[in-house]
Design brief:
Chain A is an alpha/beta fold. Chain A contains 15 helices and 11 strands. Classes of the chains: A alpha/beta, B alpha+beta. The interface between A and B is large, with 44 and 29 residues.
Chain lengths: 485, 478
């Protein structure tokens, strides 16, 4: 078996058995980046020397029988995670030279377990986008078809993985930003329950929706990565002090007797036939594996996208206020005045989509409009959450498509923001409900991967991982790799 | 009071809390440190940093709320107040808006002729302070974020005050309370207790409030009075001329005693408050409130009343002694050791306060603890020394920290009550002043004072004045 087909646990074993070394793995990833990233553009920063030095140290630890389950495993993280000493630009011009003095908790936990940081991954500016075309570093291309988008906003995180540039990555998901790119690139992506993983040190887009999660090549890796980054962090008041189960321990438990719900609002006209067919085939697999399939309803689904674009943009308008040229961002001289300096610095530093969302959010929070927009959206959000909780009284998890289509073409939707927003129609409700979900490969539309979404009860990531693993064990979609080179 | 218009004043007071660390991070709140040395990713507003609420701040807020008769909210919410300014690193201030921690309180203030007036307190909310801009001539402005994220309470009153004097009374009482509660150092110059005043006028009898001006930058009680009085006159003149008061923020200028308009962009603010998604609602249960209530110190007003009733002190004494918690504690410790409240009061208000003032020492650092002072008062009480000598001994004790007895012994100040010794002195005095003796015996009895003085002088103050008086009268009569 080639290393690229091995799970992190198998690679750990290979390292422990002396069949390979962390330096060799890291070198292989760096070579892969060098060979493919000119086309893919997944990395915005590669820290090769640092990575090799860390890998050499990891090898010493492994020889000494020390280290953790990730020791020596080369990974990469979305450029939204603060990494002390390594530039964190968040896909934006306004932070193009920003180097944070501290690590995000999620990244720190990976590093403490021995993971090797290869570099930072491209993304939509401030995580605002569904195609990774809104990056100051240029678009990421889908390794399965270079004319297509990898999805967004964690496009770099998904594309790097699919290209074999890293063995696992971290992304963030505010409205689908892990799951949709995972779906478009044919990898596994987990959006944990809100509060499961610390947001400390993750540059905020929409604080009540943002959540950190892993993207991996297989479900087992996802379980391992999630288990490492999850857990209460006193530095994040919204992280929840709820025990983290051993996800690996329950992974092979199967789906026999599990009740899986199909929300009827998710199987609608407009769903691409190839996607529909792939998801239906997956349902069939689950049925054959002994799961009970029932139809359920999430009646407020139609309002989710509108609700999301009020809440997320309102929070973003405030979160992004600190990039004002005083401390962050390239300061434009202004024509003498403070206000002019603010205006010109922000005008030059932010891209169009970020400006659009700041304006939307500012409007939604303005006095006289607050009740009609922001407050109303919060009420709708409660209804959407209740939809899910009610459904979970009947079923253990929900099964839906991740996105209405497979990856679309670069430039196909940039002219029509609303069309772009609708590509997150199946992922957004999960963020509003604050619960967990994952995306796993379940088919192809031509050469393009299609993703299956499993949505779990709050803090029950274990069940969706278990169900995902049961499907994965029956199929080989996750083993397919794009025809790069 | 104004002759033509009713004056309506509401006050917003920012109380800087004395917690050791900031409201949303672990940085020190120490004042006067090197610029930007008391900072971390959270109070610098670095991307990705998140606030974590310091629960001590809530405890202080609950104390303030209970002391001002507020209702403590079982659930309160932090909100973001959005605006751009270089001293505000996140571009928003974390404050409270719709659900503050305390609401519906009041304070009673003294008015002339013993009248009391109730001033409503609308709300008390918690918030973080901003940093400071240091303007540096040609080199431009610099930002010091040491103060950023320092905890504040904002105490908002109802518009219940109708004169500058009432405003001062309210402020003084609030100031006394927060210092008493140990939640604020009360330092006005350093900005630990800052006041904004909303002032408006309306014709007598009109129910509707007039347009108000908000006066800012007032950092002493004296300036509050000046600023309000100036503003009342300004608005009255405007109205008299048929003009209109503009709703605006006005800065008080201490040098000129005037208020001037800050009109412009400041007024166009829409703060776009919304609940801060980085913080969870603050839940305060009944047991926490009770715990804080039980630990609450006796408040100055209650203490003053008790001093009048329990110690039978004059109202004036009670007011002075109860005004400051540490002074009251000193006084009560003294009374516990020397059960003569009025004598203790006289000494504390007299010698102790005078010496503290002269030496610029705070009562908390008084070199003469109550136990030592009680030792001195005991020696007056048992006639070892006179009141006059006692003041000398007090000075020596203050300097040396020695006990009264040691000093009395060392300096030989023990009062002479031995009648034989005193008689001898009297005889000397009478002998030396035959004319005065004759005058006294001729009816000029006022001269007794003269003789007493002479004898006391000869004894160098040590003779017991009572004994001297008595013996003199006997001898002069004989």
């Amino acid at each position: 078996m080639s290393f690229s087909q091995m799970s992190i646990r198998q690679l750990q074993q290979a390292l422990r058995d002396g069949k390979t070394s962390s330096v060799a793995l890291t070198q292989a990833c760096l070579e892969r980046i060098a060979a493919t990233d000119e086309q893919i553009n997944a990395f915005v920063t590669v820290c090769g020397d640092k990575a090799l030095a860390s890998a050499a140290e990891a090898d010493r630890q492994i020889v000494a029988g020390q280290g953790g389950p990730l020791t020596g495993i080369p990974i990469a993280v979305k450029d939204i995670f603060n990494t002390a000493g390594v530039r964190t630009s968040c896909g934006s011009r306004i932070l193009e030279n920003y180097v944070a003095p501290y690590d995000a908790t999620a990244f720190a936990r990976l590093r403490e377990q021995g993971a090797i940081l290869l570099g930072k991954l491209n993304m939509d500016e401030f995580a605002m986008g569904s195609s990774n075309e809104n990056s100051a570093n240029g678009p990421v291309r889908n390794p399965w078809d270079l004319e297509r988008v990898p999805g967004g906003s964690s496009g770099g995180s998904a594309a790097a993985l699919a290209s074999g540039q890293a063995l696992a990555t971290l992304g963030t998901d505010t409205g689908g930003s892990i799951r949709q790119p995972a779906s478009f690139c044919g990898v596994v992506g987990v959006k944990p329950t809100y509060g499961r993983v610390s947001r400390y040190g993750v540059i905020a887009y929409a604080s009540s929706l943002d959540q950190v999660g892993p993207l991996t090549r297989c479900v087992e890796d996802a379980a391992l990565m999630l288990g490492t980054v999850a857990g209460y962090d006193p530095a994040d008041s919204t992280s929840v002090d709820c025990p983290v189960p051993d996800y690996l321990a329950t992974l092979e438990g199967g789906v026999k007797g599990m009740k899986i719900g199909l929300p009827r609002e998710y199987f609608i006209a407009g769903l691409d036939p190839a996607v529909k067919q792939a998801v239906e085939a997956a349902i069939k697999v689950y049925r054959e594996l002994g799961a009970e399939i029932v139809e359920v309803s999430l009646p407020h689904t139609d309002y989710a996208v509108a609700c999301y674009y009020l809440i997320a943009t309102a929070e973003a308008s405030s979160n992004l206020a600190r990039y004002d040229g005083v401390r962050f961002g390239v300061r434009q001289a202004g024509d003498g005045g403070l206000v002019q300096m603010y205006e010109q610095s922000r005008a030059a530093g932010f891209g169009d989509e970020v400006k659009r969302r700041i304006m939307l959010g500012t409007y939604a929070l303005s006095s006289g409009y607050y009740d009609a927009y922001y407050l109303k959206a919060q009420k709708v959000r409660t209804l959407i959450r209740e939809d899910f909780l009610k459904a979970f009284e009947q079923v253990d998890l929900l099964l839906t498509p991740v996105a209405p289509t497979a990856a679309f073409k670069l430039g196909e939707k940039t002219a029509d923001p609303l069309q772009m927003y609708l590509s997150d129609i199946f992922t957004i409700p999960v963020n509003l409900a604050g619960t967990c979900a994952l995306s796993l490969p379940c088919g192809q539309d031509g050469k393009l991967p299609i993703g299956l979404q499993l949505i779990g009860k709050p803090f029950d990531e274990a069940s969706i991982l278990q169900a995902a693993r049961a499907y994965e064990a029956e199929t080989d979609w996750h083993q397919r790799r794009p025809p790069l080179d | 009071m104004h002759s033509r218009y009713e004056v309506v004043i509401g006050l917003e007071v920012h109380v800087q809390l004395t917690t050791k660390t900031k409201i949303f991070c672990g940085c020190s709140t120490a004042f006067g440190q090197q610029p930007n040395s008391q900072t971390c990713p959270v109070c610098l507003g670095l991307p990705g940093a998140l606030p974590v609420f310091n629960r001590q701040v809530a405890e202080y807020a609950i104390r303030a709320g209970l002391a001002t008769n507020c209702r403590i909210a079982p659930r309160s919410i932090f909100a973001r107040k959005n605006y751009f300014y270089p001293d505000l690193p996140k571009g928003y201030q974390i404050s409270q808006f719709e659900l503050p921690i305390c609401e519906h309180g009041w304070l009673d203030i003294d008015q002339e002729e013993g009248e009391r007036k109730r001033i409503g307190i609308t709300r008390i909310h918690m918030e973080e302070d901003a940093g400071k801009l240091l303007h540096d001539g040609n080199r431009g402005s610099r930002v010091d974020l040491n103060r950023a994220c320092t905890p504040l309470l904002e105490v908002v009153s109802e518009p219940d005050m109708s004169s500058a004097d009432e405003a001062i009374e309210y402020l003084k009482q609030l100031h006394q309370i927060v210092v008493y509660l140990g939640i604020c150092d009360g330092n006005l110059e350093e900005g630990s207790f800052r006041c904004d005043a909303n002032v408006s006028l309306r014709p007598f009898g009109q129910a509707e409030l007039g347009t108000r001006a908000e006066l800012k930058n007032i950092n002493s009680f004296r300036f509050v009075k000046q600023a309000i009085e100036y503003e009342v006159e300004r608005q009255a003149d405007l109205l008299d001329e048929g003009g209109k008061v503009v709703q605006e923020t006005r800065l008080f200028d201490a040098d000129s005693g005037l208020t001037r308009s800050m009109r412009g962009k400041e007024e166009a603010h829409d703060y776009r408050y919304f609940p801060d998604p980085d913080l969870v609602p603050l839940v305060v249960d009944e047991s926490w409130i009770e715990q804080v209530r039980d630990a609450l110190p006796e408040l100055p007003e209650v203490k003053r009343q008790r001093y009048i009733e329990q110690f039978e002190l004059p109202e004036y004494d009670a007011g002075v002694l109860a005004a400051e918690r540490t002074l009251a504690e000193y006084f009560e410790a003294l009374v516990a050791l020397h059960d003569q409240p009025k004598v203790c009061s006289n000494w504390v208000m007299g010698e102790v306060l005078r010496a503290l003032k002269e030496n610029e020492v705070a009562i908390a650092d008084c070199p003469l603890p109550p136990a030592l002072l009680a030792g001195l008062l005991k020696r007056i009480d048992d006639n070892t020394i006179s009141n006059k000598i006692a003041k000398k001994v007090f000075e020596a004790m203050w300097q040396s920290g020695d006990e009264a007895d040691t000093i009395i012994e060392k300096q030989g100040l023990k009062q002479v009550t031995d009648t034989g010794a005193i008689e001898a002195l009297i005889d000397e005095v009478l002998k030396a002043n035959p004319q005065q003796v004759a005058d006294y015996r001729g009816g000029k009895e006022k001269l007794i004072g003269f003789f007493v003085g002479q004898v006391m002088q000869k004894s160098r103050g040590k003779a017991n004045p009572g004994v001297v008086n008595q013996l003199l009268k006997q001898k002069l009569a004989g």
